[in-house]
């Protein structure tokens, strides 16, 4: 097998591989001889089928298998022998000429093909112990806990049937049938639905028009779906709802005491407050994690500047662009509404894509050096979370992941990335800084800034 480099430009490589026809013929004869004792043909005793007959019957299919084996094995071996790592699966280019292909399968012509790929750039991993990170911390105020407890008490309160008109805060039990242009639409019908007026559960204008209705009243309500409504076929449309009221019930006072806690399955209000505080702290902890991660990635971004593989960067850009375009379309906005142009946005998101890929490669290299891996147990937990998102479709989801390696990698990648981040956080200098709730929740200028090309990072680390 002859291997010749035909392109070495930046990260791009092209390699020509030639397997002489004599080698192809030799491999074919080995395959035919190996099959003699296995093939059963009518009219021939086992092991006595002539080689010429086997070649006529199976020569092309055997040679096709040989071609696939050569492409698969040589691709991996050639790149390994060159001490390179491909950023993505190499592109294999073979002849498209039918006559040439037939000659190759007949063992009459050299088998030639080209490998086209980009390499993962080489870079030196740097010491991170001098990186300083501020961790924003919010202390949970007693008032915030009490506000949450009051909301829990409100949701746990009972309602008592009343005579007379419905008021804001009352619970109305009703049937309704929604129509657009006089025709009922999917999801627009319910019977015996409970709705607390003023809760904002329904689209704007619906609940307000129920105020003043009594048991037995019927009314047609007219509303307009918001422009950004999730169902595109309803967004911005005017609709009518035929409503029948079955019951009006007034909320009863709910004392915030141990009886409320017991109603919720807890032993006391102190325990309820403790749980609420922990939940709030957990939410703040997630925000803190994202802020700290962003700071760490920013610090790494300043230290590592190298060319990124074009195809990886293009794939990451497409992911970002598709999300941005979908968000704009869903909200009925344009780039001009956001104070920019499509051309400027593309340039900005291309830079962001390159950053993500670069950081992904850095995290991958760190994880590989430190022996960080994703365990089967961690992967199973991630799969379990996906299954819980699709109740009743567990079997289909399992089949999807079983048959889609890329989907499994997409589950593995963020776990790998977070484990590398955890490792780095143990190496850098972290100091806590108390901030307000508003400061913690303030969004970064770049909403995608905490992301890295984690899927690419994990795929590369597994290569």
UniProtKB/TrEMBL annotation:
Residues in PPIase FKBP-type domain copies: 169-251
Compositionally biased spans, kind Low complexity: 449-463
Record localization: Cytoplasm
GO cellular component terms listed in the entry, alphabetical order: cytoplasm
GO MF assignments: peptidyl-prolyl cis-trans isomerase activity; protein folding chaperone; ribosome binding
EC number(s) from the headed UniProt entry: 5.2.1.8
One Pfam family hit: Trigger_N
Keyword set, alphabetical order: Cell cycle, Cell division, Chaperone, Cytoplasm, Isomerase, Rotamase
Chain positions covered by the region annotation Disordered: 435-463
Reaction(s) catalysed by this chain's protein: [protein]-peptidylproline (omega=180) = [protein]-peptidylproline (omega=0)
GO BP, sorted A to Z: 'de novo' cotranslational protein folding; cell division; protein transport; protein unfolding
Function: Involved in protein export. Acts as a chaperone by maintaining the newly synthesized protein in an open conformation. Functions as a peptidyl-prolyl cis-trans isomerase.
Family: Belongs to the FKBP-type PPIase family. Tig subfamily.
Domains: entry comment: Consists of 3 domains; the N-terminus binds the ribosome, the middle domain has PPIase activity, while the C-terminus has intrinsic chaperone activity on its own.
Protein name: Trigger factor
């Amino acid at each position: 097998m002859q291997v010749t480099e035909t392109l070495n430009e930046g990260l791009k490589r092209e390699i020509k591989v030639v397997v002489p026809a004599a080698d192809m013929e030799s491999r074919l004869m080995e395959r035919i001889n190996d099959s003699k004792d296995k093939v059963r043909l009518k009219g021939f005793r086992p092991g006595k089928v002539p080689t010429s007959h086997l070649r006529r019957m199976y020569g092309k299919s055997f040679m096709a298998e040989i071609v696939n084996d050569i492409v698969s094995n040589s691709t991996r071996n050639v790149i390994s022998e060159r001490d390179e790592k491909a950023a993505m699966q190499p592109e294999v280019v073979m002849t498209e000429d039918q006559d040439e292909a037939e000659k190759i399968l007949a063992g009459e012509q050299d088998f030639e093909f080209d490998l086209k790929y980009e390499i993962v750039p080489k870079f030196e991993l740097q010491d991170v112990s001098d990186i300083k990170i501020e961790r924003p911390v919010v202390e949970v105020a007693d008032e915030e806990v009490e506000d949450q407890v009051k909301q829990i008490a409100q949701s746990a309160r009972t309602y008592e049937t009343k005579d007379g008109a419905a008021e804001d805060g009352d619970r109305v039990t009703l049937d309704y049938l929604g129509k657009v242009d006089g025709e009922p639409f999917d999801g627009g019908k319910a019977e015996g639905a409970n709705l607390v007026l003023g809760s904002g559960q329904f689209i704007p204008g619906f609940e307000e028009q129920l105020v003043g209705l009594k048991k037995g009243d019927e009314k047609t309500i007219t509303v307009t779906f918001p422009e950004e409504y999730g169902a595109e076929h309803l967004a911005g449309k005017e609709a009518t709802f035929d409503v029948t009221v079955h019951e009006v019930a007034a909320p009863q006072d709910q004392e915030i005491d141990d009886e409320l806690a017991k109603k919720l399955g807890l032993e006391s209000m102190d325990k309820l407050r403790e749980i609420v505080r922990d939940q709030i702290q957990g939410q703040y902890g997630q925000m803190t994690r994202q802020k700290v991660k962003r700071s760490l990635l920013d610090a790494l971004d300043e230290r590592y500047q190298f060319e990124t593989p074009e195809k990886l960067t293009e794939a990451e850009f497409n992911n970002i662009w598709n999300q941005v375009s979908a968000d704009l379309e869903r909200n009925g906005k344009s780039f001009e509404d956001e104070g920019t142009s499509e051309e400027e946005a593309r340039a900005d998101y291309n830079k962001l894509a390159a950053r993500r890929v670069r950081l992904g490669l850095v995290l991958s290299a760190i994880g590989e050096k430190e022996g960080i891996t994703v365990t089967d147990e961690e992967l199973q937990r991630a799969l379990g979370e996906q299954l819980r998102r699709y109740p009743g479709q567990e079997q289909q989801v399992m089949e999807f992941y079983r048959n889609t390696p890329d989907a499994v990698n997409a589950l593995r990648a963020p776990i790998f990335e977070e484990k590398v981040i955890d490792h780095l956080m143990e190496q850098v200098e972290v100091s806590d800084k108390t901030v307000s709730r508003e400061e913690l929740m303030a969004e970064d200028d770049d909403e995608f800034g905490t992301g890295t090309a984690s899927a690419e990072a994990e795929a590369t680390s597994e290569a």
